[in-house]
Every structure is written in structure tokens, then in C-alpha cells.
Amino acid sequence: MPDDKKRKVQLEYPCPWVYKIIGPDADEMRHAVAEIILDRAYKVSHSRSSEGAKYHCLNVELSVESESHRTALYEALKAHRAVKMVL
Asked: For residue 1, what is the enclosing H or E element?
């Protein structure tokens, strides 16, 4: 495997970031985001729904301060009961 595939993308912090969260209830996911992000500025927008609307995908846009901040938010979103997947 070439070394190019192993290199991490270098980001300059703070920077804007978008998480895509997927789950069965869009309102519950919005509440989860509010619980996790608290008083930081963020924007949640609907991305799409599955056929039959069994699952919904929301975009969560905000500024992240560091790699550890970005990772901590990812882990917190992933661990919430309302969120099935985070991309």
C-alpha cells in the first residue's frame, strides 16, 4: 500500500466541520445534538430520508477547535441512543 493512503489529512484548527448523523427519528437526533453541543453555535439541516422514511440523515455543521474536540464530538454523537451512525 502506498504511503499516500496512510497519511492523515492535516487540518488547520479551528475549522468548519460537518457530521452526518443517521437515525430513525429526526427530532430525537436534533435533541441529541443540542444535548451534546450545548452552547456552541451550530446548524442542523435535513440531508435526506430513506425510502419509506425509516431513517433520516441530518447534517450538523459547526466549528471544531482541535483534533481532540472533533473526535470527542464524533464519539459523543455516536454514543447517543438516538443516533445509529455518524459519518
From this structure: none
Query: Is residue 56 included in any domain, yes or no?
Result: yes
pTM for the structure as a whole: 0.87
Give the single-character DSSP code of 5: G
Q: What is the pLDDT of residues 69-85, one digit of tens each?
A: 999 999 999 999 999 99
Which domain covers residue 79, as residue numbers? 12-86
The cell for 8 is 492523515
What is the CATH classification number for the domain harbouring 53? Answer: 3.30.70.260
Residues whose CB falls within 8 Å of the CB of residue 9, separated by 6 or more in sequence, listed in order: none
Instruction: Give the C-alpha separation, 49 to 57, whole Å.
Output: 6
